[in-house]
Amino acid sequence: MEKRTMKFINCNGFGDVSVLQIAEREIPVPKEGEVLLKVVAFGINRLDIPQRKGTYQAPKGASDILGVEASGYIVNPTTLEPDQSRPVMALLVGGGYAEYVTVPKTQLMDVPKGISVEDPQSQRPGLPPT
């Protein structure tokens, strides 16, 4: 079977934004109780900056990819077809700076009606910051 890959933002060492590079790796496979999310937008959370600088260590078992906020669509992990009828947002322990991320089902929330799938990551007025 052909390997399926995704692009992600790799943190190549610690420092300023110059350590961030676009890289490629295999698409993650969801475990029991998880879904695969096709990321449409991600937020740059305050937590991501000290992690990039090396002054904050991610929890044990967390993804080595930065990003604790993302929104998008749940996809079928076999076909990668998205369920565009249900935009969702997620709080993550990492992995949001990627095209795909696995998410525990308990960390998903529906995007409120009337808000686009990109908006939860824009911190626009009326939405509480995460």
What does this protein structure show overall?
The structure is a single chain. A hairpin with an 8-residue loop joins strand 1 (5-11) and strand 2 (20-26). The mean pLDDT is 88. The chain has a five-stranded antiparallel β-sheet, with no helix packed on it. It has a two-stranded antiparallel sheet with strand order 1-2. The radius of gyration is 15 Å and the shape is globular. It is built from one helix and seven strands. It is mostly beta strands and 130 residues long.
How would you sum up the major sheet?
A: 5 strands, antiparallel
Distance between the termini: 39 Å
Mean pLDDT: 88
Separate helix tally: 1
List unreliable stretches of 5+ residues: none
Category from helices, strands and their pairing = mainly beta
Order of adjacent strands in the largest pleated sheet: 6-3-4-5-7
Order of helices and strands: EEEHEEEE
- Note the beta-strand portion: 35-45%
Shape: globular
Cα-based radius of gyration, to the nearest Å:
15 Å
Number of strands: 7
- Helix content bin: under 10%
Q: What is the element layout, followed by pairings?
A:
Layout: E1 5-11, E2 20-26, E3 34-42, H1 48-53, E4 69-75, E5 82-91, E6 100-104, E7 108-110
Antiparallel strand pairs: 1-2, 3-4, 3-6, 4-5, 5-7
